[in-house]
Amino acid sequence: MDAEIKKQVDIFTDGSCDTISRRGGWGYLLRCGEQRKTASGFEADTTNNRMELTAAVEALSALKKPCHVTLITDSQYLKNAFTAGWLKNWQRNGWKTAAREPVKNKDLWERLLELSALHDLTWSWTRGHAGHAENELVDRLALQARRRGEGL
Question: Which residues are catalytic?
């Protein structure tokens, strides 16, 4: 029996948080060929970094089978944790930063590690608010969720 061919999926994610109220939102777009799926959500007491990570967690969780995934984010924090070796260093140091402080958002990083192991995952960064159509879309989804206090 032939092995099932993995689909190529492009994922675009973004998070949004108001630093005063701590209301946050996240959004994602999954694109596989002509198929598209969007989703968004809200958290009442959060940070922008948590929303960036949550968007990636939710998007990867929406995939039903292992895929070839390109995840495009405007968060250097999210991308560099995987591509610059930060996660490996944090794990090796008992989830401590180089400054020996506890890594923030450990729960989300652990979930992202689990989910990323299921897929052939490539990380890509795009500048936010620079006219990238899909990034602008997920930015709007996250902002709307934050303002409404609910996701779609």
Answer: 14-15, 52, 74, 129, 139
